[in-house]
Amino acid sequence: MKEVATKDIELNPFITFGENWAALAAGNVEDGYNAMTIAWGHFGTLWERDSHSNRLPTVICYVRPSRYTKKFLDKEPYFTISCFDGTHKKALGYLGSHSGRDGDKIKATGLTPKFADKTVYFSEAHTIYICRKLYQAPLIENGFVDQELIDFNYPSKDFHEMYVGEIVKVLSIKD
């Protein structure tokens, strides 16, 4: 893994999230950690710091209130998005369909957690985005213009919470 600049990343978020999936992880070795699969998310720029030309590289991810990973995401200032090629779908499927409350689901996936930069990520990933939380807020029912999305995605009204993270470091195996 080597560090790369965000401006040098070639990324197709429709493949990263929608097709290959990714792992959202938070926590540390001392206090514990957890991860979950995500298939919804956004990469881009949002807000500025120090000058109007300093646009922050960001990622936005969504977590349901019931997810165990949310406990770690809420507690810690940093989280990661580990991106994989399509060969890890079985492990990511398990990671997304089992709870860390019930046992060591990460061990069961065969993925290898690594700890650095005040957080956790997976060594099998081809790209890791280390992020510092900037903002979090729940999605709310009256914010939906298209109410059919609620019927399909939230029949139990368990709306996701949105997390915006500043990408502070990118690690990649790609040259």
Average pLDDT number = 94
Based on the structure, what is the oligomeric state of the protein chains? single chain
Q: N- to C-terminal separation?
A: 10 Å
Q: Describe the largest sheet.
A: 8 strands, antiparallel
E-strand count: 10
Following the backbone from N to C, one meets helices and strands in this order, namely EHEEEEHEHHEEEHE
Global outline: globular
Number of helices: 5
- Helix vs. strand class: alpha+beta
Rg, alpha carbons: 16 Å
Residue share in β-strands: 35-45%
Report low-confidence residues grouped into runs of 5 or more. none
Helix content: 10-25%
Protein described:
The protein has about 180 residues and is an alpha+beta fold. It has 5 helices and 10 strands. Strands 1, 2, 3, 4, 5, 6, 9 and 10 form an 8-stranded antiparallel beta sheet that branches. A hairpin with a 3-residue loop joins strand 2 and strand 3 (about 30-40).
Blueprint of the fold:
Layout: E1 2-4, H1 13-19, E2 22-28, E3 32-38, E4 41-48, E5 55-63, H2 69-75, E6 78-83, H3 89-97, H4 105-109, E7 113-116, E8 119-122, E9 127-138, H5 148-153, E10 161-172
Q: What are its keywords?
A:
single chain; 175 residues; alpha+beta; two-stranded antiparallel sheet; 10 strands
